């Protein structure tokens, strides 16, 4: 008979929830900051500097976080997106063709 022993070092679901919420909040704040700085540059003589404000690593990290947490995307006509999704959409809009592509080559 196999004896089930609990791991005294295991985290509770509540503790994991706090970590999850904190990481999500960090991603949201980073994206908010990038959006704010990019919007400040939009329409100015320094508009070309937007590409330096929109950090690809930060964007990729937020995208990976949503993927790892099984956060999917709905069709564009169903505009019910999460706050993080809205921020990523705004970053894409500001980035235009100056940065990394969000186009999924597998799905077209």
Fold topology:
Blueprint: H1 13-41, H2 50-53, H3 56-68, H4 83-95
Helix pairs in contact: 1-3, 1-4
Key features?
mainly alpha; 4 helices; 108 residues
Low-pLDDT stretches? 101-108
Number of DSSP helical runs: 4
Q: Percent of residues in beta strands?
A: under 5%
- Alpha carbon gyration radius: 18 Å
What is the overall silhouette?
A: elongated
Helix content: 40-55%
The span between the termini is 53 Å
Average pLDDT, all residues = 75
Order of helices and strands: HHHH
According to DSSP, the number of beta strands is 0
What class do helices, strands and sheet pairing give? mainly alpha
Query: Which sheet architecture does the biggest sheet show?
Result: none
Short summary:
The chain is mainly alpha-helical and 108 residues long. The protein has four helices and no strands.
How would you portray this structure in words?
This protein is mainly α. The chain has a domain at 46-98. It is built from four helices and no strands. 13% of the residues are buried. Residues 101-108 have low confidence and may be disordered.
């Amino acid at each position: 008979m196999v004896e089930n022993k609990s791991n005294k070092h295991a985290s509770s679901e509540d503790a994991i929830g706090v970590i999850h919420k904190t990481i999500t909040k960090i991603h949201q704040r980073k994206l908010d900051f990038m959006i704010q700085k990019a919007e400040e540059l939009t329409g100015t003589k320094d508009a070309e500097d937007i590409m330096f404000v929109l950090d690809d690593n930060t964007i990729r990290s937020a995208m990976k976080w949503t993927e790892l947490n099984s956060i999917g995307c709905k069709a564009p006509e169903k505009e019910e997106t999460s706050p993080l999704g809205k921020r990523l959409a705004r970053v894409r809009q500001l980035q235009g063709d100056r940065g990394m592509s969000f186009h999924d080559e597998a799905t077209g």
